[in-house]
Design the sequence.
């Protein structure tokens, strides 16, 4: 029975998981990303991580496809890393091809946010024609599903909503530009704000204790305006909102939705947009990557199908 390996690379942790052809998941493993990315040769570190993981699994689990999820810009053919700010040594490297040669396994890759979105899309009875995913975690992840597939743009850089310029914003972004909305609308910004204004508050309780603070109400309003801008451009059927920040206790989801809808153009997308809040967990990125790997593998033989868990 073929198995599929999903590797979800995040700025803090890298997660791995296997899935069999019947979409049964097993072997979830999490390790600090710097344990391999901080090495002098990160690609060799990633190879060793994957080899070590596979060596620890049942040898009968034959891997048919490996899928990497990376939080950066990839080439349109999804073979080359173009920009991965926290592992810049991988920039302009044909990572998928090199890993495939080293592991002697088929390797593909995509933006990590597309794997989150793929998992969420498969929770619906049928796939929509147009949907958008916004996942607010350390950064602002944006996934575009257009005409029944993920949209990557002419060069691979589509869906960088977090890097639109915000007027009056002087902050330098890790991407190298000044004024990106992500510098004021992300988990990174929240962490810095909490350190400065609420050092005695556990980060997980930030919205429990300080949701009414003017800076945090403006944070929510800024997020609503940013997302609404994209909705008015793309007019999707579904908007999926998720990520670790939105999953924080007492995050004002109802307020976010109300403000977002107040900015939508009438009659559409105002009257047609369905908003779904994602129940993202630690394993969601891995699971989505496994399912994406199976989709790639099956694309050469038969249509992909998804079995929902009971």
Sequence:
């Amino acid at each position: 029975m073929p198995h599929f390996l999903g590797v979800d690379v995040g700025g803090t942790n890298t997660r791995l998981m296997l899935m069999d052809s019947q979409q049964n998941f097993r072997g979830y493993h999490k390790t600090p990303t710097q344990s391999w990315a901080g090495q002098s040769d990160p690609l060799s570190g990633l190879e060793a991580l994957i080899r070590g993981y596979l060596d620890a699994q049942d040898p009968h689990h034959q891997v048919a496809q490996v899928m990497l999820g990376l939080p950066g810009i990839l080439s349109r053919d999804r073979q080359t890393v173009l920009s991965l700010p926290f592992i810049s040594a991988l920039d302009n490297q044909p990572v998928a091809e090199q890993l495939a040669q080293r592991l002697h396994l088929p390797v593909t890759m995509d933006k990590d946010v597309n794997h989150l979105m793929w998992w969420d899309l498969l929770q619906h009875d049928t796939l929509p024609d147009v949907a958008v995913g916004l996942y607010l975690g350390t950064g602002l992840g944006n996934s575009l599903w257009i005409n029944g597939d993920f949209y990557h743009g002419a060069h691979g850089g589509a869906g960088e909503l977090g890097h639109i310029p915000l007027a009056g914003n002087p902050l330098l972004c890790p991407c190298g530009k000044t004024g990106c909305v992500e510098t004021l609308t992300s988990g990174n910004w929240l962490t810095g704000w909490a350190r400065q204004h609420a050092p005695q508050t556990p980060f997980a309780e930030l919205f429990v204790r300080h949701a009414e603070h003017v800076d945090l109400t403006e944070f929510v309003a800024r997020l609503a305006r940013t997302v609404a801008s994209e909705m008015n451009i793309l007019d999707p059927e579904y908007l999926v909102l998720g990520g670790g920040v939105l999953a924080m206790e007492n995050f004002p989801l109802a307020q976010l939705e109300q403000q977002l809808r107040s900015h939508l153009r009438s009659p559409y997308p105002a009257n047609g947009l369905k908003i779904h809040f994602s129940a993202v967990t630690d394993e969601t990125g891995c699971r989505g990557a496994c399912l994406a790997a199976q989709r790639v593998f099956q694309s050469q033989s038969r249509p992909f199908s998804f079995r929902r868990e009971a």
